[in-house]
Write a structure and sequence with these properties.
single chain; 262 residues; alpha/beta; Rossmann fold; six-stranded parallel beta sheet; 12 helices
Length: 262
């Protein structure tokens, strides 16, 4: 597009462009201030795991895990429990939820959940650390914040990953993951409430960092301020649509604020 000189055309398209740019700058400035306030206020920080801390299935693809669960169900003669869409869905949690809806609290669900946990544990060695996550965790712990993980993944998976990165001590065993009762997975606030209770934390003194609308809803229901992390534009769009007001596309600005550089 060719931009005309502004001149005296106060009502031309360039005036609108300037106004739009100014508004965008104001929005970014306001969000930066919100981020700083959130971080400075937080005494307790709850992290979702798969996303803000690492990409668990970066090397051990989630779609292959989902396929494994479907094949296992087929060997049990139970593939018919899934719709055609569920049988080819790339998210293993969709398979687990589907079976749970049709056979809640059954041995079948328990066995399927354990199989998913084993697949998650296999994924740990090839998981990709989220950029800046390790130094962010260490810095936040060093300045005195209490840290916990509230996730729909297995706590055993989280523990294995943290140990591999030398981060276990930063969380002091405050790892709250998937339980046998799948009704308590996020967006239910169960794992957040467990973390808050264990640390003796008031919700208003905490901060939840998550990358999914279910994290945002769980934080809202627990009364905990929420910071969205989006590794791409699609994730950001989903978080914004869910009502997340403060979203970062990198953890670097969070680390900068903590270090007094932001």
């Amino acid at each position: 597009m060719v931009r005309r000189p502004l001149g005296n055309h106060h009502h031309g398209p360039d005036t609108l462009l300037v106004t739009s740019d100014t508004r965008q700058t104001e929005l970014v400035t306001a969000e930066t201030e919100n981020l700083r306030e959130m971080i400075e206020r937080a005494r307790f920080v709850l992290f979702d795991f798969d996303g803000p801390i690492c990409r668990l299935f970066a090397g051990h693809l989630a779609e292959n895990v989902a396929k494994d669960l479907v094949e296992w169900l087929e060997h049990q003669g139970m593939r018919g429990l899934l719709t055609e869409e569920e049988q080819v869905h790339p998210d293993p949690m969709v398979v687990l939820y589907a079976v749970h809806r049709r056979h809640p609290h059954s041995d079948l669900v328990s066995e399927l959940e354990e199989r998913l946990t084993q697949q998650e544990l296999k994924a740990v060695p090839s998981a990709w650390p989220t950029p800046y996550a390790d130094p962010l965790i260490r810095t936040w712990s060093a300045v005195g914040a209490r840290l916990a993980i509230a996730t729909n993944n297995s706590a055993r998976t989280v523990s294995g990953y943290l140990e591999s990165r030398g981060l276990t001590d930063c969380f002091a065993r405050n790892l709250y993951g998937r339980t046998q009762d799948l009704n308590q997975l996020k967006p239910h606030p169960h794992c957040l409430n467990r973390a808050l209770n264990a640390m003796g934390a008031a919700p208003s003194a905490a901060l939840m960092i998550g990358d999914a609308p279910s994290d945002h809803e769980a934080a809202q229901r627990a009364g905990v301020p929420f910071l969205g992390y989006a590794r791409n534009a699609y994730k950001e769009k989903l978080l914004r649509a869910a009502g997340a007001e403060t979203v970062v596309t990198s953890l670097e600005p969070v680390l900068r604020v903590l270090r007094g550089q932001g």
